[in-house]
């Protein structure tokens, strides 16, 4: 009889422990052992990066470049000089509305010639390609554009999905081929490369827009100036 009681008690305690562990597992998720965030240093600048799916993306627009063959990269403020530089194939950049204070928040706006003459992304990183964006969109699913947008700055955009990815895209606008600036507070656009290995001209620019929850693939106007996002090789 004593043995029967002991066995019954042992069985009851064992079942209780199993149930307790199961309840504990349901209430307390496993700790995250992998940090999604990186800090990347390049040419005197530091950038935050985040893991999204199987990719690492900068969470900021590029602010630097590494000139090759001692070529000078010129800041073009006047509309006429911006237009002339594009026609003559001269590398150049600007800040939105030519305000240097915009660099920290939005990064630099580059003309296409800067990307073809210089290594702009740090070693081990490359200018985003259309393929990179398609993989990102596939991972994020519906409303991918809203999931990439920063949680503030987008004006009329009202979505619980804002910056779900950690990509932190701000509505930084872009520069038109005629030198005027457009779109701040409403949209942002990035150059894409035709190759991961070496920058090559692509027919596509990527845009996010207020009032549009998706990623937009648009035809490049080479005279325009756009931003750059880097992706880990």
Verbal overview:
With 233 residues, the protein is an alpha+beta fold. It has two domains: 1-31; 37-232, no CATH class. The protein has six helices and 13 strands. The strands form five sheets. The protein has a three-stranded antiparallel sheet with strand order 1-2-3. Strands 4-5-6 form a three-stranded mixed sheet. The protein has a three-stranded antiparallel sheet with strand order 10-11-12. The radius of gyration is 25 Å and the shape is globular. The N and C termini lie far apart (70 Å).
What would the average pLDDT be, to the nearest integer?
83
Number of strands: 13
How widely separated are the two ends? 70 Å
Give the structural class: alpha+beta
What letter string, H or E per element, gives the SSE order? HEEEEHEHEHEHHEEEEEE
Q: Number of DSSP helices? A: 6
Major beta sheet, specifics? 3 strands, antiparallel
The proportion of residues in beta strands is: 25-35%
Please tell me the total number of domains: 2
Describe the global form. globular
**Unreliable stretches, pLDDT < 50, 5 or more residues?**
1-34
Radius of gyration using CA atoms only = 25 Å
Instruction: Tell me the strand order in the biggest sheet.
Output: 1-2-3
Helix residue percentage: 25-40%
């Amino acid at each position: 009889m004593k043995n029967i009681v002991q066995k019954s008690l042992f069985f009851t305690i064992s079942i209780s422990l199993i149930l307790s562990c199961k309840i504990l597992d349901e209430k307390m998720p496993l700790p995250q052992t992998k940090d999604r965030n990186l800090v990347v240093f390049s040419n005197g600048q530091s950038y935050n990066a985040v893991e999204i799916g199987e990719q690492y993306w900068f969470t900021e627009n590029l602010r630097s470049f590494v000139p090759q063959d001692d070529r000078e990269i010129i800041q073009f403020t006047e509309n006429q000089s911006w237009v002339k530089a594009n026609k003559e194939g001269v590398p150049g950049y600007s800040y939105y509305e030519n305000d240097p204070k915009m660099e920290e928040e939005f990064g630099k706006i580059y003309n296409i010639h800067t990307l073809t003459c210089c290594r702009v992304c740090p070693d081990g990183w490359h200018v985003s390609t259309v393929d990179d964006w398609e993989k990102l969109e596939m991972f994020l699913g519906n409303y991918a554009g809203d999931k990439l947008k920063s949680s503030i700055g987008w004006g009329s955009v009202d979505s619980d999905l804002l910056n779900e990815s950690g990509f932190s895209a701000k509505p930084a606008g872009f520069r038109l081929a005629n030198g005027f600036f457009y779109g701040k507070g409403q949209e942002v656009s990035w150059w894409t490369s035709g190759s991961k290995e070496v920058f090559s001209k692509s027919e596509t620019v990527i845009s996010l827009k207020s009032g549009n929850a998706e990623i937009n693939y648009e035809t490049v106007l080479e005279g325009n100036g756009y931003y750059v996002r880097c992706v880990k090789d």
